[in-house]
Structures are given as structure tokens and as C-alpha cells.
Amino acid sequence: MTRRTSRAGRLGLGAAVAALLAFTLFPVYWMVSSAFDPAAGRRGSDVLPSGITFDHFGHVLDEGDFSRYLANSALVGLGTVLLSGALALFAAVAVARFRFRLRTKVLVMILMVQMVPLEALVIPLFLQMRDLRLLNSLIGLTVVYLAFSLPFAVWTLRGFVAAVPQEVEEAAYLDGCGWWRMFRSVLLPLVAPGLVATSIFAFITAWNEFVFAFVFMQDDARYTAAVGLHRFFGQYGTDWGAVMAGSTLITLPVLVFFVLVQRRLAGGLAAGAIR
User: Fold this and answer.
1) Are 220 and 164 in contact (CB under 8 A)?
2) Do 162 and 275 touch, CB atoms closer than 8 A?
3) What is the largest CA-CA distance in the chain?
């Protein structure tokens, strides 16, 4: 009886996992198959595509100028990752190692910033970027994404820095290291997993964001990929083949990157959560 129950349980678990995978992966399958379907606009509810063609990708990259949008997204994402990683690491060292006035209040304010809906910040940030003359600028957009990425990065990296015993740093000082040498040779390697996790979060945030890029960018040549995809939606119709091809091009780099580093990401987030 126990064996029958166990076998039924395994079958049920397998069916549940298969259903979950089908539910999760079907939108991805539909996007990719429609990108290769020569009749994507007339596909309707057909599960299988009517054929295979690369014309939609050629149209998106050549006539749609999507390669420029992907390059803009890569520049903004790379700038956000580098700046947020450096600033968050130094800020985490400051709040974890040094005692100063308002230290606790600074930590609480960092946590509160994460609770504010992004839509509520569109108008204030738009006015600030306008006054700073950073509208329609990839640098201005990078600054905005940096502001969104820093609270999570500082809060996460603070746990990693606090988990490093101060005796390790003191031993480095006794061996003749200065602060910068200790930071580069001792502290930085120990917090590297957390730095990788926060960098991935910052990149995905900058790569996928649409609202701020759509509001702040006014020149077509400076659109990011998420905003450039919007050009294929017309007033009287939608080029579904181009939309699905552009969506595939946007998704593919993030998907490959995430698969390559997902173990390190999961380990880094878990370690940061328990420290």
C-alpha cells in the first residue's frame, strides 16, 4: 500500500512539475516560434508555426534599427552595473565598519526607498533630470537606474561586509597593509559573491526597464531596446513578427547570462540573506 501511495505521489509530482514547466515555458515558446513564423500576423491559435524564416529578424535589425537600441541598452546596463557595484560596495563598508551619527537612520532610509513605487517617482525624477539637463541622455538614464539599484545593492552587500571578521582585516594591517591594500586583497575577494549577485540585479533592472526610458528619451536614436520595441506597435495594426523577433533579441542575452551565473546568483542572495 505504501509503495502504491509513493508511486502515485511521484507520478503526481511529475505531472505537477510538467504542468508548471509547460505553463512557464509556453509564452517563451510562443514568442520564439512566432519570431520565425513567416505568417506570424495571421497565426491565430495555431500551436505550430507555418514555417521558418529569418525575415523578421532581418527587418528588425536593418529597417527597425534594433541593433542601435540593443547597443544603447548594453551601454546603460554596463554603466549601471559598474557604478552601482563600486558605490554600493564603498557604502556597505561605511555602514558596516564605521560608527557615525545617523548611521541607523541612513540604513532605514535606504530600506524605505525600496518601498516607494517606481511610478510615483516618474515626475520628480523627470523634473530633476530636466533641471540637470540630463533628459534625452543615456548618462541621465544610467543615473536613474543607478538610484534604483543602489538600495538593494547596499543592503545586500552590507551583510557580506559585516560577516567578514574584523580580525582578518587587523591581521592584514599587522602584516603592513594599508587600508586600500587590505580592501583590494582581503575584503574584496571575500564579498565577491555578493557583488556578483547585486551586479546581476542591476543589469536586469536596467536592461528590462521601460517606463523611465520611454518618458526620458525623446530622440529615436537614443531609445533602449525595450522602448525601441514599441515602434512596431502601430495605430491601426501591429507587426507581430517584428515584435516577437525583437522580444527574442531582448530576452536572449539576459536568458543566457542568467543561466550561466544562476548558481552564483542564488548562492550570493542566500548568503546575503542569512548574514
Assistant:
1) no
2) yes
3) 74
Describe the chain by its helix, strand, coil percentages, rounded to 5: 80, 0, 20
DSSP code of residue 219: S
What are the beta bridge partners of residue 233?
Answer: 238
What is the number of other CB atoms lying within 10 angstroms of the CB of residue 145? 25
The angle subtended at Cα 273 by Cα 270 and Cα 275, nearest 5°, is 110
Q: What confidence score (pLDDT) does residue 260 get?
A: 73
How does pLDDT run across 164-184, given as a tens digit for each residue?
Answer: 888 888 888 888 888 888 888
d(CA 62, CA 183): 47
The per-residue pLDDT for range 18-43, each reduced to its tens digit, is 999 999 999 989 999 999 988 888 88
User: In one letter, which amino acid is 237?
Assistant: G
Strand partners, 238: 233
Collapsed DSSP state (helix, strand, coil) of residue 29: helix
Taken as a whole, the chain contains a residue count of 275
CB of 219 within 8 A of CB of 195?
no
| pLDDT attached to residue 273 | 47
C-alpha to C-alpha distance for 239 and 231, rounded to whole angstroms:
10
Q: What angle do CA 60, 247, 21 make, to 5 degrees?
A: 150
Hunting for cell 514547466 — which residue is that?
21
pLDDT lower than 50: segments of the chain: 1, 273-275
63's grid cell: 529597417
| Cα–Cα distance for residue pair 199/257, rounded to 1 Å | 12
Burial class (CB in 10 A: 0-12, 13-18, 19+), 175: exposed
pTM for the model stands at: 0.80
Asked whether 196 and 261 are in contact (CB, 8 A), the reply is yes
